[in-house]
Amino acid sequence: MCLDVDDTLVDSAGSSRHSLRALVGNDRAWSVWQRTTDRYYARFVTNELDFDTMRVERTRAFFAAFGEHLDAAEAERREARRMAAMQRAWRLFDDTLPCLDWLRGSGLRLAVITNAPGAYQRRKIAAVGLADTFDELVISEEVGAAKPDPRIFRTACDALGLHPAEVVHVGDRLDIDAQGAARVGMHGVWLDRTGTADRPTDVPTITSLFELPGLLMSDLPAVPAERRGASGRPLAQLSC
Ligand SMILES: [Mg+2]
């Protein structure tokens, strides 16, 4: 069983929004911050920028959008303040621990698959109390490939010692998580916490991690034969 971290287990958007309030006194520019983050985080994920450079450049771009042009030193100071506020606000969603407890109690081996810097993400996982929860932490910076690159999903399956058709991956991004996992023959599940989007036809959708046990015990569709390979088995036959 694989899970994404940010906005799947950890309310990263919530902590980021809190940090923006700490930085500028309100969150009226939240959508600008989100767009700027999407743009710059993508450059980190593709190795165009290292994580610390990305953070500073993102902060400069954000303030530049409002006509304030920061030098690198000032951007670093503001980003350090924002990061400290964000880390104090890291929280699990209410459904995270009950779901993880159920998965553990079912005897499933657990891994995370996350696009992030290794040390930073390990610190976050420990800060929210999950340091001893997972059998494997599969982190893009350490793997050298980021979701939806098939290599990171295959790395996770290999680390668990399982064929992709025996592994479920749940995440909040339809394209990067659920469909990316499905493309390598895993059972991709989309966690749409908004519950408002049109449901895709190619992967199952849940709106809360409370729904995951029911999905696992009921009717996850079998992985199509062309994705399965010779040893693929439907989920209902999974051994733990
Ligand atoms: Mg996520």
TrEMBL record:
Its cofactor is Mg(2+). One of its GO terms (biological process) is small molecule metabolic process. Keywords: Hydrolase, Magnesium. SUPFAM superfamilies: HAD-like. Signal peptide: none annotated. GO terms for molecular function: hydrolase activity. It comes from Saccharopolyspora thermophila. This is HAD family hydrolase. Pfam families: Hydrolase. InterPro entries: HAD-like_hydrolase, HAD-like_sf, HAD-SF_hydro_IA, HAD_sf. Gene3D superfamilies: HAD superfamily/HAD-like, Haloacid dehalogenase hydrolase-like domain.
